[in-house]
Task: inverse folding
DNA sequence: TTGAAAGCGCTAACAA
DNA sequence: TTGTTAGCGCTTTCAA
């Protein structure tokens, strides 16, 4: 039923090969034939069948994006960067969710491989990476984003987490604060570890004692931000500043303070500057990650590999964070 | 380089057809051959090439999702519902952004058609739908979500916007309020129109005079919510309750109140109950849309059409909203 | 500059 | 129960 090159060829009185050449802008084709063919393409409303083309040329011009969760502003801001950049290359994007677990992660990877994506961009859901080696066996390039994993070597794009934390803490100390609490993520994740490291390093460099009781670890979720802020506020001597390791815990922490009508003078510094961060009332300092750029850099790196350029593999690209003070 | 059915067939000492039958669980195949073939598949690490299969069977088991913007919690919550439901059917999802304009919308539709998606789910970026008829010419089923459009007939899944507004306003009136302001969206969009209609109808039913000066229209963005709340608060006699037509304007409005240290006793009722709505401090009433269900219903309807069941076309599915009072 | 023909990897008649 | 064969729609040698 749908129009094929053959139909166009017949109408134009040329061969299918010629039509294909016109479509692919092959230079060695006469202007006259080209125009004739184009006219017929329009008349018939011909649309390329990318499936057939892909089978022939072994390229789908499609990239997979695998992340722990879809309705997540942070991941999707990166996805936007990815999609915008991919579009420049004429590529499109299959988005999958691993729902935060390894089994589904592997399952989706296999699916993407079956779909013959030209490359895969992954925001890992854990610190485990062994199952990603399946991608290698399929010879499909992959780029890790936001987090690194164990037992899997690949290009990666992420931010300089240590310095991000460090500069925020430094700024807070220079503003005269000394009791700075910490709400961190799951320490098995590289991001959580690095952000904690920046915090500790800054305190040490400024000779501020590290107080274990105002250092809390959760799992980067709204809920754990809520609970940990509750724990901090329940202390006999609460901190007067709290550093929070990501956006969602920041939301949870704020929620706790709002719901409990907090009147204690507390300020928050938090990783991530999202559109909504500005209405999180206790927040004075933000560490902005360049989300769109993370996405576009991931694509650029991936494209290099897709084009079989293996320069400097594995490239670990660390982008700078930016300190936002309100 | 990659393993094909032929390779498996050779190793197993059978024909490619037999391998194909094993893969597709064809019942008329002996247990012995099946086991032998499966063993070879595992030994070689064979993975189906969906591109080749798709070309042959004229189905890609892929659906396109086109929305105005990717990092948008509301759209992505629907996308999550879509992805989860698609997974049950063994389908995957190509996500595209129209960036809110008609030209890109058409361009992405064409791309999806070229990729031979089996169906398309669209959150339209405007009220115009004529360009969507291109999809019909390709015989690809489509389902509209959240909004209806002019000049294009298709199945659609959205909420009962009128009643959503109505019940919220009714609740507010019953709580004793009489001066209820309104912040609406672009009235060319069906959602904006319907939500406004519910507001007006409730006021009329309860014999409350309609005051033009406390009724404002924006464009569903954070910025316009911010500005319009500013306009309302600048009035000589501001309303004591404000109804806001969507999540993003709600954020903007709250932002205005927070930034301007508002002390005037004002309450907000707003469409959409997102994860963050609970920290928007002035909000007392929310109209929850069942986002995940919108997504899954869209998929179910689409699947019907993909399976060539044209029962009751076009189906306009109106889901109920839920009133949340804090 | 163009056409004929082969083939990408798979599935589905048809035959055995 | 299995194999042979053709062909999905496209691109790309090779030959003209």
Result:
């Amino acid at each position: 039923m749908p129009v094929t090159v053959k139909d166009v060829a017949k109408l134009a009185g040329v061969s299918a090969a010629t039509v294909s050449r016109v479509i692919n802008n092959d230079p060695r084709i006469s202007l006259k034939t080209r125009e004739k063919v184009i006219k017929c393409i329009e008349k018939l409303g011909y649309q390329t069948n990318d499936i057939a083309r892909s089978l022939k040329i072994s390229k789908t011009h499609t990239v997979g994006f695998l992340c722990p969760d879809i309705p997540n502003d942070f991941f999707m801001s990166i996805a936007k960067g990815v999609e915008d950049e991919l579009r420049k290359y004429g590529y499109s994007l299959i988005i999958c969710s691993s729902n935060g677990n390894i089994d589904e992660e592997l399952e989706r990877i296999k699916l993407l491989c079956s779909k013959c994506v030209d490359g895969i961009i992954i925001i890992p859901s854990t610190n485990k990476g062994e199952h990603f080696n399946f991608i290698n066996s399929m010879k499909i390039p992959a780029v890790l984003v936001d987090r690194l994993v164990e037992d899997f070597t690949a290009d990666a794009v992420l931010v300089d987490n240590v310095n991000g934390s460090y500069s925020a803490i430094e700024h807070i100390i220079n503003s005269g604060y000394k009791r700075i609490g910490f709400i961190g993520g799951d320490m098995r994740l590289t991001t959580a570890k690095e952000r904690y490291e920046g915090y500790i390093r800054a305190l040490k460099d400024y000779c501020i004692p590290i107080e274990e009781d105002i250092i809390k670890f959760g799992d980067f979720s709204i809920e754990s931000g809520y609970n940990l802020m509750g724990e901090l506020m329940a202390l006999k001597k609460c901190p007067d500043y709290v550093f929070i390791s990501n956006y969602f815990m920041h939301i949870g922490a704020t929620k706790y303070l709002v719901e409990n009508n907090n009147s204690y003078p507390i300020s928050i510094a938090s990783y991530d500057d999202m559109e909504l961060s500005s209405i999180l009332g206790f927040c004075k300092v933000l560490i902005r990650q360049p989300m769109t750029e993370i996405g576009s850099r991931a694509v650029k790196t991936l494209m290099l590999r897709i084009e079989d350029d293996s320069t400097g593999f594995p490239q670990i690209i660390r982008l700078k964070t930016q300190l936002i003070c309100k």
User: Anything to note?
Assistant: The longest helix of chain A spans residues 73-88. Chain A has three domains: 5-55, 62-153+291-317, 161-288.
